[in-house]
């Protein structure tokens, strides 16, 4: 089976005032059709840059240093603007972290959804749906993402929506076509838990009925647990642990993953001081040698400062990049 | 509302209403809300999306004009305050907006953004200003070198932290946080919550804390208010309310929190 999306040893650098930031440092990830992959990791570790790079809209001036990203077997770096038109927003749908940037402030929600619906019909060689048909379809999409009174919301302008309403409009836009791959960057964090549960159910349905493939980036480990089959944990531009979601959450192998999970405040259970992972992420301009996590790691030894750990695991499905992980 | 012999609340609002017109109809985004916050208290606001939380936040800070109701800060009615008097008050009342992406000016560096309130209010200059900016960046766990960066060079959570640093710069007495940790991973979130907790202990800072994350609300807040369709449907001490919610809606909210597989 060939992967729908394959990221192979991908390195990316972005020039900054203080020198090039090595934001992606050898990422390896692959997704089969119908798989759901979660990506978690500290703020600033490269999740959004990775997602945007997959879509060919990475930061300006970003430079690929090594590796490649294959979608349907083709290197995305080789795609022309014309090729992208049939892929971005069509075969690969995306939900971005900052909804306002992707909504046009001058048009109503109904107009923007209607345009997307018409564009998808065109992409599939169908006749342009009429105004009434577009409106009905748009209202259905808004209803699916849990917006009450969708008819009314169609006549709203983006600034008239609350944060969570806006985010759901963006999800509706992403799902207005028939994407093969959905890349969702923090799709549910601005939503209250009841709506979040509904959105996650909708995504799960699409995975089950249409075989939709999903990459979901989220800080919300609960949402990751609810939707994804596999999870990749990123730290400072590297994937440091990857495996079946339930396994990784229940038995994290990397000291960073362990710290991350220990920092979660819980809704029930005692209120304790949140430990977190002490310290901050390293500079990506001048990252620590060896394992990028070693300066913050409780288990670090001289080896960690000297040598970058390779991904390994007793079980090939659950792998970790740590010299001292307890693999037994 | 407790109108006991307690000291005067730092912030209080009575009968707040905000009506918007959208999609050809009137929306009562906030529909008769009373609230009162003692100095040093942390009041959480939870509720479904669109229930009026952000609108309420903007109202109490006088960033949106209320359709009805009164707001008092430190014992003084500020409902009709304008111009210079309101500007002076801004120093004591700050907000971290829900959307960090549009809250920052794209043409200002992080250093300029954080220094701006200090400069405008004439609090610090020169080396003292630089040192203060460094300390604020430390507090929100951002590398000091980020002072040269522009917003588009930051991740979502980094932008959010710049907004938090900016809001903390003037050591306000009252801080509204609208989903301040939604773009943060748990470990940075823990550090920010620790900083907020410290400031509260040291400076008696008072917070209005809006969040969808009920676990975080439980961790940080003393009292919590549950909103629905512009109204407060339930409120009380956070532990008691979460342990025994009276409203069906609050129960649904609590039951929907995804539980994690634990070892
Ligand atoms: N255009 C840019 N120029 C320079 N540095 C950048 C640029 N865009 C992102 N970065 C840096 O690259 C790193 C990764 O950013 P990215 O947005 O991918 O983080 P993230 O993992 O999505 O974080 P968050 O969870 O906070 O959204 C960050 O340290 C960020 O400061
Ligand atoms: N400028 C505006 N014009 C018209 N309607 C508005 C405006 N701002 C907010 N509203 C409406 O007011 C209601 C409350 O919005 P608000 O942003 O206060 O909700 P919220 O509780 O903060 O939701 P969320 O959790 O999604 O951020 C919504 O129905 C929204 O559509
Ligand atoms: Mg991001
Ligand atoms: Mg809001």
From TrEMBL, chain A:
User: Which GO annotations describe the biological process of this protein?
Assistant: peptide transport; transmembrane transport
Kindly give the membrane topology term recorded for this protein: Peripheral membrane protein
A UniProt-annotated Pfam family? ABC_tran
Grouped into one coarse class, the protein's main location is membrane
Q: Domain (ABC transporter): give its ranges.
A: 5-261
- SUPFAM superfamilies, alphabetized: P-loop containing nucleoside triphosphate hydrolases
- Do you know which Gene3D superfamilies this protein is assigned to? P-loop containing nucleotide triphosphate hydrolases
Tell me the compartments it is located in.
Answer: Cell inner membrane
Keywords tagged on the record: ATP-binding, Cell membrane, Membrane, Nucleotide-binding, Transport
One function term, GO molecular function aspect: ATP binding
GO terms for CC? Answer: plasma membrane
Tell me if Cell membrane is a UniProt keyword of this record: yes
For this chain, the family text in UniProt reads:
Belongs to the ABC transporter superfamily.
Report what the protein is called.
ABC transporter ATP-binding protein
The taxonomic lineage of its organism, from the top, reads:
Bacteria, Pseudomonadati, Pseudomonadota, Alphaproteobacteria, Hyphomicrobiales
TrEMBL record, chain B:
Its domain of life reads Bacteria
**Keyword terms, alphabetized:** ATP-binding, Nucleotide-binding, Transport
Major site of localization recorded for this protein: membrane
Recorded GO molecular functions are: ATP binding; ATP hydrolysis activity
Q: Which residues constitute the signal peptide according to the record? A: none
Gene3D superfamilies named in the record:
P-loop containing nucleotide triphosphate hydrolases
**In what way does this protein cross or attach to the membrane?**
Peripheral membrane protein
Q: Which residues form the ABC transporter domain?
A: 11-254
Q: Name one GO biological process term.
A: transmembrane transport
GO CC aspect terms = plasma membrane
List localization entries: Cell inner membrane
UniProt cross-references to PROSITE patterns, sorted A to Z: ABC_TRANSPORTER_1, ABC_TRANSPORTER_2
The family annotation for this protein states: Belongs to the ABC transporter superfamily.
Protein name, please?
ABC transporter ATP-binding protein
